[in-house]
Amino acid sequence: KVTYQHHGAWFAEHGYVCFIIDSLQLGEIEGIHHGTHRYDMWWWNAVGYTPAGVEAWNCIRALDYLETRPEVDRERMGATGRSGGGAYSWWIAALDDRIKAVAPVAGITDLRNHVVDGVVEGHCDCMFITNSHRWDYANVAALVAPRSLLIANSDSDGIFPLDGVLRVYDKTRNIYKFYNAADKLGLQISPGPHKDTQELQMAAFKFFDRHLRSEERAIDRAATKQFQPEELKVFEQLPADQRNTIIHETFTRQFEQPRPPQLDRQWNSLRSELDDALRTRVFSYWPQQAMTTNEPPRVTFTQTHEGVRLTGYEFNVHDGLTLPLFQVELVSRQPPKSVDVELSVVDESEWQNLLAALAGNIGKSIETYQLPPADESAWKKLRERLEQRDLFFVAPRNIGPTATKPAAKPQTQLRRRYMLLGESLEGMQVWDVLRAMQTIRTIAHRADSTLHVRARGDLAAAALYASLREWRWSPANLELVSPPASHRTGAPFFHVLRYVDMPQVVALAAEEAPVKLVDVKEEDWRFAIETARNVKWKDRLTIVNEETAAAE
Question: Is residue 298 classed as helix, strand or coil in its secondary structure?
Fold first, then answer.
């Protein structure tokens, strides 16, 4: 309202009715646009929330109101805005056919600019849809066709680069040609940076005259500011029932915890529903062609020390991306006797601990990983574990050798890139664990072997979800240390909280094989506990914390 009110005044002075909307974050009642960008509110991804959705809804309600005004011709309504307002102009024009002409200014570019070139880093969350269909932004532009559309931008805009804008325009032009409506599509490029210039304003004014008023008028003057900010103030006191500041809590429909099923048939129905949601909604972006691939990994090194053999593998995750997998085993153990196999899904600190354990004894082959100081006590503990089973270690993407810069800002922007592609970093780590389990099957293929999977924190959630598809190998055992009790607090898989939460997935896993939850609050897992008891597999779910361990 404050920054762009002179645009609306110009339209009003030239025969238009102009409705100017406060944006969610920059209005008198201040909400949040920067949930993932600034405040680590990654659960927005889990519930499918974006402030762009609120802005789009507000635009729809604005049109609803304008239709009630006697001076408004509902057949000649348009939208325009710059930067964030340009983005909201795109959303309302794509969503609502009542918009007959739209002139978004500096509001769109393609995923190549955002993801590859990194311009996502200059944008708040309000610019983006939750891209569950994995569209590029030319698809959004195509939804406007064949209505009148002017794409306007500066030629040196750092957050809407010209090359991406032109790619969107070229693809959109093909759609307009298909409709025989090429005359309704325009492109205005003016010199300058990301700035509200008069050249861009004038182009929008002329465009609406032509396509809404069917007039060709000379622009008599540019828009100039007429009011001071304090003159535009509405509220003396903010409404007590305002929802702007917490609208992200309620705007999207979210999964509601069901009651634990009492009967087998109730559980069977719920299980089928949850399985379908995970497959078709939550992880629909996984590479389907590799879902059942069991190609053998490439051996990168092998080294033996004090009867312990370390073998390094490199396995294909998808599309040429490879990850390392370590196998540690006792040389004296003779296959094909039944031997337990354990996969540890390691986080960054566990990866460093593993390297420290190996560094002083068997670490020569892994010097390329920048070994920390050797830890002899960790080496002894590792040897003790080998008495029970062969050990495999995998570090999913963005951990260990594939980690990006650990600072908060690069990590935030990496995760936001995934978000634009309709997925999440954490969701692709689930895929990495799944592929590691498939790869281990090609290495440790003893018929009687039992696979144990261990992980902690957010990676415990990754192991849990990956295991749902991999119990086929054998009666497995899953140990989850300090897993998030809800995706609200960790492992924010894309859209997961629209369909399911952690306790239900633990129940799904425990139906098939033993699950141990370590260092958790029992009340957080009540659904899984009661479900296991009611449908007769309570012995497959174990909870261990400090109190129970002390009692034992």
Answer: strand
